[in-house]
Amino acid sequence: MSQSRQKSLNGPTPPFPSIERLLAFFGGKMLSAIDGELCRAFTKNRSTEAAARRDLEELRAAINYHRQDGRCDRIVSIVLPDKPGARQHWLTRSQVARLLWDAWRFREIQKGKPTDRRSRRHVARFILVAVYTGIERSQYRSFRS
Q: What is the DSSP letter of 41?
């Protein structure tokens, strides 16, 4: 296992991973170089437009804070991708019940035979927490700490 992978497994996750992505793309550029074309190039570089929008919102907030703190006098416009549409599909009560049932009752199969080991119960617990609190998988880590 690589040292960086081992470090990420053992150590805490960075508080703002979007800052690292922004620095990787915009790091060597001056504020005056940031324009719509560069923002659109960043959007193409990210996996989804929603992910790019979140990162660019962080950049915009940092630039605005920097300007309000008196460190620059230029207003920099950040071009954001369009907001994604609202989610159209939600799980029904019976679909959630089926997921819970399958996760809770799952038994490992080793050498072709089912064992007594129930290795998906943690998934069932996560589903319950997610359904009752509305929390997403990405937020679950900070929820547990």
A: H
pTM for the full model?
Answer: 0.56
Please tell me the total number of residues recorded for the chain in this structure: 145
Residues of the domain holding 62: 16-83
C-alpha atoms less than 13 angstroms from C-alpha of 141 in its C-beta half-sphere: 5
What is the tally of helices (H) and strands (E) in the chain? 7, 2
Contact 20, 14 (CB under 8 A): yes
Angle, CA 137 vertex, CA 131 and CA 143 arms, to 5°:
85
| Residue in 36, 60, 40, 59 with CA at minimum distance from that of residue 49 | 40
pLDDT digits (tens, 9 = 90+) for 5-60: 444 455 566 667 888 899 999 988 998 899 999 999 999 999 899 999 999 999 99
Question: Is 8 part of any domain?
Answer: no
Number of structural domains the chain divides into: 2
DSSP per-residue string spanning 64-117: HHHHHTTS-----PPPPPPPPPPP-----HHHHHHHHHHHHH---EETTEE-S-
Q: Which helix (H) or strand (E) element contains residue 28?
A: none
> 114 forms bridges with which residues in the sheet?
109
